[in-house]
Design goal:
Elements (H helix, E strand, L loop, with lengths): L2 H38 L10 H16 L8 E7 L8 E7 L15 E2 L8 H5 L5 H9 L3 E7 L7 E11 L4 E11 H13 L5 E4 L5 E4 L18 E2 L6 E4 L8
Antiparallel strand pairs: 1-2, 1-6, 2-3, 4-5, 5-6, 7-8, 7-10, 9-10
Length: about 250
């Protein structure tokens, strides 16, 4: 393979990554519209909504995508600031898709509502606005990808969380985020054939250089990968880059 052919092949891989995430962001935008309309249509002061009504509306949006054959998303929903949900400081209208041998929930063959009534979630929720998946959209007013990180809340596995701000008052204030989780294992199924089609080992890394996936066996998810920026190709619309995989770093 010539240098030009190699570059073209890696560009195609980067483009494929961008397409996968663009599909998910488009889905989040489609979900955000009816959620914002529901909030705007509330007749109460501050556009408060009833938790049960919000849950029903969000479930109708996200569950079909979680239970479709070979679903890309492992979880999805809307996390609302308590200002718009009656009697709540924070409200998770969030569902998980079918799970296989999950250490928290076991095996499930249908969608599962994230249950926040257990003690294990108390510390996590205490300062949720400081967590990256909420804080960055609140600061930038743009969509964001968090991860890869180990999801101790639901899956106990490496995931990526995509979130997009949801606004009230005609866009004047953020009232929550609509989001979706992708497991790294499922993303590998989607993208590894593309990566393996290139003769040299490649890695997909986030903005901090953390590996999302790699065709270099010594370079595992979550590890740091250092590469020449000149060889890195940006994946449009994402914080990720495709790089020629270097030797694994000891950093974690």
């Amino acid at each position: 393979m010539t240098t030009h052919e190699h570059r073209t092949a890696v560009e195609a891989v980067a483009h494929a990554v961008g397409e996968v995430f663009a599909r998910v962001f488009d889905q989040l935008a489609d979900w955000r519209t009816p959620i914002e309309a529901m909030i705007a249509g509330s007749p109460t002061a501050g556009n408060e909504v009833r938790p049960a009504e919000l849950d029903e509306a969000v479930a109708e949006l996200v569950i079909p995508r979680l239970v479709e054959p070979d679903a890309l998303l492992i979880g999805a929903g809307f996390i609302a600031d308590g200002e718009i949900v009656r009697g709540r400081e924070v409200h998770f209208a969030w569902w998980l898709g079918p799970l296989d041998d999950n250490p928290v929930l076991g095996s499930t063959d249908g969608p599962t509502r994230l249950d926040l009534s257990t003690r294990g979630y108390t510390e996590y929720l205490r300062d949720f606005r400081a967590l990256e998946w909420y804080r960055i959209p609140a600061t930038t007013r743009h969509a964001h990808v968090t991860g890869p990180f180990v999801d101790h809340l639901c899956t106990c596995d490496y995931i990526l969380t995509l979130t997009m701000p949801v606004h009230g008052d005609g866009g004047e204030r953020m009232v929550g985020v609509v989001g979706a989780d992708i497991s790294v294992r499922r993303l590998e199924q989607e993208l590894l054939p593309r990566f393996l089609g290139v003769e040299v080992p490649l890695a997909l890394v986030n903005a901090d250089g953390r590996v999302v996936l790699s065709t270099e066996p010594a370079l595992q998810v979550g590890q740091l990968a250092h590469a020449d920026d000149a060889d890195a190709l940006e994946c449009a619309g994402t914080p990720f880059r495709v790089i020629v995989a270097p030797a694994a770093s000891a950093g974690h």
